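STRUCTURE:
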């Protein structure tokens, strides 16, 4: 999805605009400190999809004497120990910053140099670095959306090979997330997951009470969900959800099993003209025709206002949205929200973050230690969960008492128990190098269907032909 609707619409601003700055966090040879705290009061940037919510941010986490790095990585300064260079993006950068003291204890002679750009700029810079072979970091953070394309570049270390032997740690991680981090044809582990986004249905309990609608009516199946939305709209004036595309995207994942891709099968054949896509388009169109969606693009001002004002009753998205709602999107709605499974028993993931080692990394051994710290340390993973609402990819923490804690924003609901069950059950769906392209094409064709009345069969047939033609050229 490049560009996708999120990038085209005017984004809602975080409470405090991010500015380019440098921060000294951990110095080689310094005494280990307690883990750097993460404050919910810090600027909260949309973590999975927003690409223009703030100005580009540059962070250099190293000794105070280390000069701030302008842009991404080039030659290091001739004096001092070689740093570990990590390229990342908000809010994943905050998790790395919080782990800096642990890193200093683990590798006291390897200063941590963290460079963070906003989401789109980071991935564009990494695309360029991979293409040119210059300016590459030792560790690269990658969002799920880019995994397929980046893995197909051939520019990353296969972590299944010695000395990393990632396959021996496979049981450490959520099974579906590990599959997402594998290379083309599921050959070789290109990246390890740092966090995941178990899919959930968030809803306003007060709006449902006013409409006389139960949670069971929302989650039973699609027909029941849309019928409940009609009652909500008639009795409260609230829309069922933000955009018809949300429903389409979820429905596309219904019925998928391990090894089945969303847009391509195991042999690379295009699937966008299948019954699954026809059904998803029909559901999205039915919702638009019934006036059930607010026509608000995710992360736009209208979308945020809908949550604040109770004009959007539900959201089908990753569990991480609770943190955004609580911290800056709609903090005044605390206690009014609840979480439920996705309609029809769909098990799906929304987003996720990964770490990989470029083949041209200068410090691969330290890079591997950093990746394992960020992805396999219970302390690091739990801290990110509690403060950033980044759900752990590390399954050993699923039995931690924090999973049983009541969440005040959700009216005391112990929703993490449900989300961990979802994380365990999400099918292992492989990524494909053209998933991003397919997402863009499908979204464009769907818009033609709901906005201009294009026939669904024609739209999907054209999507298939366009995708096959463009994929052959690349």
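SEQUENCE:
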């Amino acid at each position: 999805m490049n560009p996708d609707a999120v990038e085209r619409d005017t984004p809602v601003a975080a409470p405090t605009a991010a500015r380019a700055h440098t921060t000294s966090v951990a110095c080689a040879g310094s005494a280990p400190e307690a883990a750097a705290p993460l404050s919910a009061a810090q600027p909260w940037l949309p973590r999975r999809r927003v690409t223009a919510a703030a100005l580009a941010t540059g962070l250099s986490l190293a000794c105070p004497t280390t000069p701030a790095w302008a842009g991404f990585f080039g030659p290091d300064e001739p004096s001092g120990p070689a740093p570990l260079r990590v390229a990342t993006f908000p809010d994943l950068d905050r998790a790395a910053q919080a782990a800096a003291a642990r890193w200093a204890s683990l590798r006291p002679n390897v200063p941590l140099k963290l460079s963070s750009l906003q989401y789109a700029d980071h991935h564009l810079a990494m695309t360029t670095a991979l293409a040119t072979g210059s300016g590459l970091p030792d560790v690269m953070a990658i969002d799920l959306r880019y995994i397929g394309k980046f893995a197909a570049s051939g520019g990353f270390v296969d972590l299944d090979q010695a000395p990393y032997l990632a396959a021996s740690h496979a049981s450490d991680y959520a099974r579906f997330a590990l599959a997402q981090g594998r290379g083309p044809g599921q050959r070789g582990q290109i990246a390890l997951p740092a966090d995941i986004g178990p899919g959930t249905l968030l809803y306003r309990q007060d709006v449902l009470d006013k409409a006389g609608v139960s949670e069971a009516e929302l989650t039973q199946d699609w027909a029941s969900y849309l019928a409940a939305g009609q009652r909500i709209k008639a009795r409260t004036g609230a829309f069922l959800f933000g955009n018809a595309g949300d429903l389409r995207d979820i429905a596309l994942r219904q019925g998928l099993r391990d090894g089945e891709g969303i847009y391509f099968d195991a042999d690379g054949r295009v699937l966008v003209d299948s019954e699954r896509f026809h059904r998803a388009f029909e559901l999205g169109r039915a919702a638009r025709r019934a006036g059930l969606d607010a026509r608000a693009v995710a992360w736009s001002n209208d979308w945020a206002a809908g949550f604040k004002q109770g004009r959007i009753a539900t959201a089908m998205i990753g569990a991480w949205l609770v943190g955004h709602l609580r911290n800056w999107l709609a903090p005044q709605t605390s206690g009014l929200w609840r979480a439920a499974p996705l309609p029809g028993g769909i098990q799906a993931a929304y987003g996720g973050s990964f770490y990989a080692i470029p083949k041209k990394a200068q410090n691969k051994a330290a890079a591997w230690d950093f990746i394992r710290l960020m992805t396999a340390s219970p302390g690091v993973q739990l801290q990110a969960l509690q403060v950033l609402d980044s759900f752990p990819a590390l399954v050993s923490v699923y039995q931690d008492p924090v999973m049983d804690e009541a969440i005040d924003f959700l009216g005391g609901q112990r929703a993490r128990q449900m989300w961990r069950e979802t994380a365990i059950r999400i099918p292992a769906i492989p990524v494909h190098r053209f998933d991003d392209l397919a997402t863009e094409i499908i979204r464009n064709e769907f818009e033609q269907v709901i906005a201009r009345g294009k026939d669904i069969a024609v739209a999907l047939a054209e999507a298939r032909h366009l995708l096959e033609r463009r994929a052959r050229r690349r």
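REMARK: The chain has 18 helices and eight strands.
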